[in-house]
Amino acid sequence: MTSSHLVSIPTRRAHSNHAEVARSIGIDIISGRLGEGTRLPGDAELTATFGVSRPVLRESVKTLVAKGLLSTKARVGTVVRERSAWNMFDPDVLAWHLDAGIDKRFLADLAEIRLAIEPRAAALAAERRSEDDVAAMRTAMAQMEREPSTSVAFADADLALHIAIANASGNPFMRSIGAVIEAALRASFVLSAPVETADRDTVLVWHQRIIDAIADGNPEGASEAMIEVIYNGRRRHAQSAARTDQE
Question: Using the 8-state DSSP alphabet, how is residue 39 labeled?
């Protein structure tokens, strides 16, 4: 990867031989150890490397082909595909990014897709929310206020609030996208945790403004507050990256 590395957030191990082989090769691809256009070694070498049978290896390759990371062609072999072909909404591909180590490019791409979806989700939530939806948001907000900013519990509460907003939008596509990128969002929130008191206050104020706008039926206010929350997170990511680069 060309962007500077920030942090690796290990995910759960695979539960089968073919899934574990796919995970290992997938992480090598995402980390850049197997670059675009690289041809994988032959079956004999790979089965020896991983200690698995040929059918297990072939099942692993089929999995990676389906996720857009590899292509197989007669007389060419199995080749690593370009990043633009990867299925970034695949839960495994997202998990492997966390294992390989999140970098600035990943965080920037995640922020862009959030800006494309979440402000609209917040606006729809302001039009369609139920009493239960607002209660779920307020519960998550109360947990954010209770927990230390740098704790996993704070990030989990932040995530719960954003998922509650997606649910309140009433749009099943937005709900699904929120569920799919949940692990990436949690990692993003961990990395953008507000360390300074002033940053924490800003985070809490703007999240509360989203909830208030949704509860008041104010789509424009909800959308604008969500945009500010995402941009605030990007600024903290940049600060975190700068500190990491200096270490």
Answer: B
Whole-number Å distance between alpha carbons of 192 and 183? 14
Q: Any idea which residue has 């049978």 for tokens?
A: 53
Please report where in the chains the tokens 């969500």 appear, as a residue.
Answer: 226
Mean pLDDT of 145-149: 96
Coil, helix or strand at residue 32: coil
Long-range own/partner contacts, residues 25-28 (CB < 8 A, 24 or more apart)? 25/60, 25/64, 25/69, 25/70, 26/64, 26/67, 26/69, 26/92, 26/93, 26/96, 27/96, 27/99, 27/100
CA distance 149 to 101: 22
Closest to 191 (Cα-Cα) out of 91, 115, 107, 111? 107
H/E stretch holding 123: helix 104-128
How far apart (Å, rounded) are the C-alpha atoms in residues 157 and 143? 6
User: Helix (H, G, I), strand (E, B), or coil: what is residue 57?
Assistant: helix
| Cβ atoms 183, 91 nearer than 8 A | yes
Which residues, including other chains, have CB under 8 Å from residue 29's CB and lie 6 or more apart? 64, 69, 70, 80
At 151-200, the pLDDT tens digits run 999 999 999 999 999 999 999 999 888 877 888 888 888 888 888 899 99
Return d(Cα 226, Cα 208) in angstroms, integer: 10
Token pair belonging to 75: 């007389």
Give me 74's structure tokens: 């007669």
CB 146 within 8 A of CB 160: no
Structural contact between residues 182 and 163, judged by C-beta atoms closer than 8 angstroms: yes
Phi, psi of 103 (to 5 degrees): -120, 180
